[in-house]
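User: Here's a structure from my thesis project, written as C-alpha cells. My advisor, Dr. K., wants to see whether a designed sequence matches the one we expressed. Can you design one independently, without my sequence as a hint?
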C-alpha cells in the first residue's frame, strides 16, 4: 500500500516541467474514493482544465504533484471544462456576449466562457473552498485528501482551520466523515471541540 497526498492548489509537474495547478478533486462520495484530479494548465490560452486519472500521480506532497504521464499525454487528456469564446457565443446566440465588443475602434476581448464542467456520473468535484462542517457548525475548508493506492480510498481529510495568520491544518480520519453531500459539503460525525483536539500543524501553502 502506498500513501498519496492529493492536495488542492498544488503545483503540478510533468517530466520535471511545471504544467499547472490542481483545482478540483473528483471523488466517489459513496465509497470515499478519489478518481481524478482537475489540473488548470499553466500556459493554456483557452483555459481548458484537464481531467487526470488519479493513477497518474507518481509522487506528491502537500504542495507539489508529479505526474507519470508525458507532456503530450497531458495535453491531449480529457477536458474538464467545456468552453467557448465570447466571440463564438456572440455568433451562436446572435448578440454580443459579455467580454466581446462590437463597437468600431473598441478592442474585442475573446475571453473563454465556461459552459459546463464534465464531472463523471455519480461523482463530485470538490475545490479548496469546500466547507467542512462539524455537527455544530463550520470547522474549516478542504485542503487535501490523503489516500491509499491502489484503491485510492480516503484515509484522511486535511482541513484548513483558523483565520489569517492563525491558519493551521488539521488531519481528520476518514472514519469521522459522516457524509459528503451532493453540493460537496463535507459533514463530520464530530463536534467542533472534538475537531479542535486533533493535532494541528502550520500550513505549508502560502495562499
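Assistant: Designed independently from the structure alone:
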Amino acid at each position: 500500500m502506498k500513501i498519496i497526498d492529493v492536495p488542492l492548489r498544488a503545483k503540478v509537474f510533468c517530466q520535471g516541467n511545471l504544467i499547472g495547478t490542481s483545482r478540483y478533486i473528483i471523488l466517489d462520495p459513496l465509497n470515499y474514493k478519489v478518481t481524478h484530479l482537475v489540473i488548470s494548465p499553466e500556459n493554456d490560452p483557452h483555459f481548458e482544465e484537464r481531467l487526470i486519472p488519479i493513477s497518474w500521480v507518481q509522487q506528491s506532497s502537500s504542495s507539489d504533484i508529479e505526474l507519470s504521464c508525458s507532456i503530450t499525454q497531458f495535453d491531449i487528456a480529457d477536458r474538464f471544462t467545456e468552453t467557448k469564446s465570447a466571440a463564438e457565443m456572440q455568433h451562436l446566440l446572435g448578440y454580443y456576449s459579455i467580454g466581446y465588443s462590437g463597437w468600431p475602434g473598441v478592442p474585442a476581448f475573446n475571453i473563454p466562457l465556461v459552459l459546463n464542467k464534465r464531472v463523471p456520473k455519480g461523482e463530485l468535484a470538490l475545490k479548496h473552498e469546500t466547507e467542512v462542517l462539524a455537527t455544530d457548525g463550520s470547522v474549516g475548508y478542504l485542503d487535501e485528501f490523503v489516500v491509499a493506492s491502489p484503491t485510492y480510498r480516503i484515509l484522511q481529510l486535511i482541513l484548513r482551520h483558523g483565520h489569517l495568520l492563525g491558519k493551521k491544518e488539521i488531519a481528520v480520519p476518514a472514519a469521522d466523515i459522516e457524509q459528503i453531500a451532493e453540493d460537496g459539503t463535507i459533514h463530520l460525525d464530530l463536534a467542533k471541540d472534538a475537531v479542535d483536539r486533533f493535532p494541528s500543524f502550520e500550513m505549508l501553502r502560502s495562499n
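When you compare it with your expressed construct, this may help: Residues 129-202 form a domain with the SH3 type barrels. fold (CATH 2.30.30.240).
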